[in-house]
């Protein structure tokens, strides 16, 4: 077992380790459990969540053992980097890894559990959500700030930004952090990063209008390029589904 703990939680090391060792038989399930398991635990009156990443395939077991950082380690390190850049994310607490001499097995990421009002996904499913356009524009400004700070959030998808609302003030927090790059972002990279969020034209128009003004390009240029990448992303999804279906029925 290998692990690292946020210095603010060093006194809780024994309890955190116990949560990990007893993960399968304790904690409260939270959210979708299909790919990875997420559970809530009580740590001295504070609700924390622990994400258990599934054991990778045989090739990745070797890769994570010898060549790559685990998803849990990346999540922990990226969360700390986001904090240093003043970007919202649940407070990172620890990560744990289990390995054999030659293979990587399980990993866990522990963080603060945040309560929130909605995610971006609700903006795509409820167009009558109160102050819908104001939230969407604030989210677009938040994304622009990420890009200005050189944060390329590769999983910038509808469920991965938590939104808190407090008297008309909107706060945004990134989750599912293991796929991220820190690099300068040109206009093409920025637009491509927005392309996974929605295929609804009304939302695309608002985001294009807000981002184009912030970046200093025409709305028409931004809107056209964003739709180009949206269509490319949707085509990629369709090809993957078709290939999977073809392989299943061989």
Provide a count of the helices.
8
Class derived from helix and strand content = alpha+beta
- The helix content is 40-55%
Low-confidence stretches: none
Distance between the termini: 41 Å
Strand order of the largest sheet: 1-5-6-4-3-2
CATH architecture classification of the largest domain: Orthogonal Bundle
Provide the number of structural domains: 2
Q: In one word, what is the shape?
A: globular
- The proportion of residues in beta strands is 15-25%
- What's the CATH topology label of the largest domain? Transferase(Phosphotransferase), domain 1
Describe the structure.
This protein has 250 residues and is an alpha+beta fold. It folds into two domains: 2-112, Phosphorylase Kinase, domain 1; 118-241, Transferase(Phosphotransferase), domain 1 (Orthogonal Bundle), CATH 1.10.510. Helix content is 43%, strand content 23%. The model has no long low-confidence stretch (mean pLDDT 94).
Brief characterization of the structure:
The protein has 250 residues and is α+β, with helices and mostly antiparallel strands. The chain has two domains: 2-112, 2-Layer Sandwich (Phosphorylase Kinase, domain 1), CATH 3.30.200; 118-241, Orthogonal Bundle (Transferase(Phosphotransferase), domain 1). It is built from eight helices and eleven strands.
Lay out the secondary structure:
Layout lengths: L1 E4 L7 H9 L6 E2 L7 E7 L2 E8 L4 H9 L4 H14 L7 E8 L4 E9 L5 E2 H6 L6 H17 L2 E3 L7 E6 L2 E6 L5 E3 L4 H8 L6 H15 L3 H30 L2
Antiparallel strand pairs: 1-5, 2-3, 3-4, 4-6, 5-6, 7-9, 8-11, 9-10
Helix pairs in contact: 5-7, 6-8, 7-8
